[in-house]
Amino acid sequence: MKSIRKPLIAGNWKMHMTVSEGRDFLEALESKLSGQTGADVALFPPFTALYPLRTVARTVRLGAQNMYAEVKGAFTGEISAPMLKEITDLVLIGHSERRHVFKESDDLLNRKVKRALEFGLQPVLCVGETLDERESGATMERIGAQVTAGLNGIEKAAAQKIIVAYEPVWAIGTGRTATPEQAQEVHAAIRGMLAGRVADPQGILILYGGSVKPENSADLLSRPDIDGALVGGASLRVEPFSAIIHNATQPNPA
User: Fold this and answer.
1) I need a labelling partner for 126 at 20 to 30 A (CA). Which of 76, 149, 161, 210 fits?
2) Quick check: 229 and 208 in contact, CB under 8 A?
3) 8-12: strand order across its sheet
4) pLDDT tens figures, 171-216
């Protein structure tokens, strides 16, 4: 039986979309979402578009793709939690590209989560395994380490505000997708890992990210512990993204 947790469909634009492109996209998406209440929708635009798009967003929630762990200082090119707090209340932390391309450690990401919560931002903590870890049977060990480190030193009540996104690294931008059964297995395990670390594991949203598209989203989103999607490439065009949102709002006979 599917939980009553309201699904969240989030689009991560990464390093795509100028301000004008983002405005056109969001205006078209908002018109399609008129009257839609079955799922929450969020977009993570580049920093340059985050503030300007606030004038267009009506039902869509806007969030930041990243932030730094310090409040202020000589950190050229970085954005802090208090800076973000003036324009948003949602932030991605630990996306696989931050972990693997920019070599961000579990310790740094934990400090980011704490800082986000300190300033009233809701962190979307991303976790996931590489292909080598999947094939060697180390998936649960690696994700367990990321969850444990990410929530280290955070009180249960504060940790309850966190959203978790499971994104198998081997399925991001590759066209490969974890099967619905594989994704559900990991999502259920993550919910178990949250026991004792958050006030109510059943109340935590766990999103799936990894080559989500209209063709596979309905099956993925029907699984009991998959509470939405963190969408990459398919969030750059209105039609496929709105189709995924539509699939999240359909009743699940299971």
Assistant:
1) 76
2) yes
3) 61-62, 40-44, 8-12, 228-231, 206-208, 163-166, 122-127, 90-93
4) 877 777 789 999 999 999 999 999 999 999 999 999 999 889 999 9
Say how far apart CA 33 and CA 128 lie, in whole Å.
Answer: 30
User: Counting runs of H as helices and runs of E as strands, what totals does the chain give?
Assistant: 11, 8
- pLDDT of 253 higher than 50: no
Single-letter residue type at 204: I
pTM, two decimal places? 0.96
SS3 41: strand
Distance from C-alpha of 90 to C-alpha of 93, rounded to nearest angstrom: 10
- Of the chain, the end-to-end C-alpha distance in Å amounts to 6
Question: Distance between CA atoms of 245 and 229, rounded to whole angstroms?
Answer: 9
Q: Report the distance separating Cα 78 and Cα 34, nearest Å.
A: 35
Q: Which two tokens stand for residue 39?
A: 């799922």
Contacts of 133 (CB under 8 A, 6+ apart): 139, 141, 142
Check if the beta carbon of residue 125 is closer than 8 Å to that of residue 87: no
CB 126 within 8 A of CB 93: yes
Q: Which two tokens stand for residue 94?
A: 């630990």
Here the tokens at position 96 are 């696989």
Q: Which two tokens stand for residue 15?
A: 């390093």
The predicted-structure confidence for 61-78, as pLDDT tens digits, reads as follows 999 999 999 999 999 999
At the top level of CATH, the class of 8-248 is alpha beta
Q: Which residue has the tokens 């990243």?
A: 66
Active site residues: 95, 167
DSSP assigned state of 151 = T
